[in-house]
Write a structure and sequence with these properties.
Elements: E1 13-16, E2 18-21, E3 24-32, H1 49-74, H2 83-93, H3 96-108, H4 113-129, H5 134-138, H6 140-154, E4 169-173, H7 178-182, E5 189-194, H8 202-210, E6 214-216, H9 221-224, E7 230-234, E8 239-242, H10 246-267, E9 283-288, H11 294-299, E10 305-309, H12 323-337, E11 342-345, H13 372-378, H14 380-393, E12 399-403, H15 409-429, E13 439-443, H16 446-450, H17 452-458, E14 461-464, H18 466-474, H19 492-508, E15 511-514, H20 525-531, E16 535-538, H21 543-550, H22 555-565, H23 571-585, H24 587-590
Parallel strand pairs: 3-4, 4-5, 5-6, 9-10, 9-16, 10-11, 11-12, 12-13, 13-14, 14-15, 15-16
Antiparallel strand pairs: 1-8, 2-6, 3-7, 7-8
Helix pairs in contact: 1-2, 1-6, 2-6, 3-4, 4-6, 12-14, 13-14, 14-15, 17-19, 20-22
Bound molecules: phosphoenolpyruvate and magnesium ion (MG).
């Protein structure tokens, strides 16, 4: 079946990228040309200005109508909930900065439309590149994809549409825009691979929601293949095999069947309660960055939102959202998730996250700088309006308020004082809110872990942010690839910090949850159960898998496992122990032979 004569690519050529959407796809390649357009800048004579302006306006209009077409094709089908992505692209096409900046360059600097647009896009990209947060940085892909569309239309290049694909293929592209992904019909496009991209790009989010296996960030795949090369893609492990041998083909066919069987089985867990064999209930909630993702969380059976990263409402705009605008968003999320709770984390910006209208000084060490709650306590006006919006929303459903990056009790008291001031103001204005609004904190710093005992007396709940806790605990920048090998969730120091936090919460009788990425990895499920977590909040697609696991274990299994782990002195030993234990208990989840 797999004809190795078709191509010069050696048999079983193995490529490693990022697994953006799980699943296994077996088929042949289909190249889609999405190479970035190269615009040529050229000086123009003053009399050419109107011509170039018109060309630019025309390209904008053509781009808009293309996007409207995608929108019409998608409306009413399963992707309708993602229409916001197309709307975002349409909004970018109407962005006054983009239009005026480009027109200004044509008129004042006498640069051709292509060149002017290229310069404007470069400026936009630079702003995004300064953002260290991976998720936000990847929002740049929206600008890139609109920019490419505009340039293509300006240069008279056609857009190869994925709707035209008429057979079962694995799409190979340099990059794919969310609009491309939305046009993918699962019946025909059995997977895609790209040179660029990150796990949290919209394209990756959409692929996960469509259930199309995807491996991205392969760097050179488009340079290696042409059409009709036999290919296997494994979106679980982020691997691609070009020109597979018969043995490999048979091996992956089995894996594919096993995976699809497991996925079907997992769907049956969606509406089952998340309880252990001994009757312990562990609430599995969703992490949400964009309000639109709430639907995804709901679809996976999330028992509410455990982390709404509210800073996303404040980014990519020149003016922060007003109190009323925030209220609308919070209420909408509450409505969608009712009767479950929604945990709103106050602004976590500064340092690594960029707020356009506030000029923060450049910091030498932003991770330890004016970020998160420190920023809110400095920019009190902004903090005050967010607290008022959250309080007002609390009149309409179960809201939980959460402060990020708390380092000690004094800081928490300061936050509580601000909250009391906002409450007093609302009372004076006769505006209702939930008088018993739970006020929790994120435990993300070693100092908070060390004084958890005191913090637990003054907070209503804890939520452990392991993404930061691990970075600060181990002194390993979470975004630095050079020290990524040291970023170890299972480091004995991390496990001890987690134990300390959970014990403090237990002693004070408050709930303790986790909302860092560690919470969504089923490998850690039993450990987290043993530590005593009451809630785990994660990217929604991880929920059914973890629920299935939790329903097959007892809390005491976790406690016993933990006892053994605490005897081990390195992260490697601990990881090996857990992998063996979990592989033995859940061979179908963890014992797949390494690929
Ligand atoms: C964390 O630090 O684990 C967390 C959930 O917050 P963020 O990833 O937004 O910093
Ligand atoms: Mg954090």
């Amino acid at each position: 079946m797999m004809d190795s004569e078709k191509t010069k690519i050696p048999e079983d050529t193995f490529l490693v990228g990022i697994g953006a959407s799980p699943g296994i796809g077996i088929g042949v390649t289909y190249q889609v040309n999405r190479q970035r357009m190269t615009a040529v800048e050229r000086r123009i004579a003053p009399e050419e200005v109107p011509f170039e302006e018109n060309a630019f306006f025309e390209a904008v209009e053509i781009s808009k109508s293309q996007l409207e077409e995608v929108k019409a094709a998608v409306t009413g089908n399963q992707l309708a909930e993602h229409l916001y992505i197309i709307d975002t692209h349409l909004l970018i096409l109407e962005d006054q900065m983009l239009l005026n900046e480009t027109l200004g360059l044509i008129r004042n600097e006498l640069i051709n439309a292509e060149g002017a647009l290229k310069r404007t896009l470069r400026k936009f990209r630079q702003v995004f590149d300064r953002i260290e947060d991976e998720y936000l940085r990847e929002r740049r892909s929206d600008i890139d994809s609109v920019g490419d569309r505009l340039l293509r239309n300006l240069m008279g290049e056609s857009q190869q549409s994925l709707v035209e694909v008429d057979r079962k293929v694995v799409v190979v592209a340099h990059d794919l825009s969310p609009a491309d992904t939305m046009q993918m019909d699962k019946e025909r496009i059995i997977g895609f691979v790209t040179d660029v991209g990150g796990r949290t790009s919209h394209t990756a989010i959409l692929a996960r929601s469509l259930g199309i296996p995807a491996v991205i960030g392969l760097e050179t795949v488009t340079a290696m293949v042409r059409d009709d090369v036999p290919v296997i893609i494994d979106g679980i492990h982020g691997t691609v095999i070009l020109n597979p041998s018969d043995a490999t083909f048979r091996e992956y066919l089995k894996k594919k069947q096993a995976y699809e069987y497991l996925e079907k089985e997992l769907l049956t867990y969606r509406d089952l309660p998340s309880v252990t064999l001994d009757g312990d209930h562990i609430a599995l909630r969703g992490n949400v960055e964009l309000p639109e993702e709430v639907i995804l969380a709901q679809g996976q059976g999330a028992e509410g939102i455990g982390l709404f990263r509210s800073e996303f409402l404040f980014l990519n705009r020149s003016v922060p959202p007003s109190e009323d605008e925030q209220l609308e968003v919070y209420r909408d999320i509450l409505d969608k998730m009712a009767p479950h709770p929604v945990t709103i984390r106050t602004l976590d910006v500064g340092g690594d996250k960029f707020v356009p209208e506030i000029n923060l000084a450049d910091e030498a060490n932003p991770a330890m700088g004016l970020r998160a709650i420190r920023f809110s306590l400095k920019e009190r006006r902004l903090f005050h309006s967010q607290l008022r919006a959250i309080l007002r929303a609390s009149a309409f459903g179960k809201i939980r308020l959460m402060f990020p990056m708390i380092t000690g009790v004094a800081e928490l008291r300061d936050c509580r004082d601000c909250l009391e001031a906002a409450k007093a103001e609302l009372v004076a204005e006769g505006i209702g809110f939930d008088q018993r609004l739970p006020v929790g904190i994120m435990i993300e710093t070693p100092s908070a872990a060390l004084v958890a005992e005191f913090l637990a007396r003054e907070a209503d709940f804890f939520s452990v942010g392991t993404n930061d806790l691990i970075q600060y605990c181990l002194a390993v920048d979470r975004g630095n690839e050079h020290v990524a090998y040291l970023y170890e969730p299972l480091h004995p120091a991390v496990l001890r910090a987690l134990k300390m936090i959970c014990s403090a919460a237990r002693q004070a009788g408050i709930t303790v949850g986790m909302c860092g990425e560690m919470a969504g990895d089923p490998l850690y499920g039993l450990v987290l159960l043993g530590l005593g977590f009451d809630e785990l909040s994660m990217n929604a697609p991880g929920i059914p898998r973890l629920k299935r696991l939790l329903r097959q274990v007892r809390r005491e299994d976790g406690v016993r496992l933990l006892d053994e782990l605490f005897k081990l002195s390195t992260a490697q030993e601990i990881a090996r122990y857990i992998e063996e234990e979990m592989g033995r208990r859940f061979p179908e989840l963890f014992s797949a032979p390494p690929i």
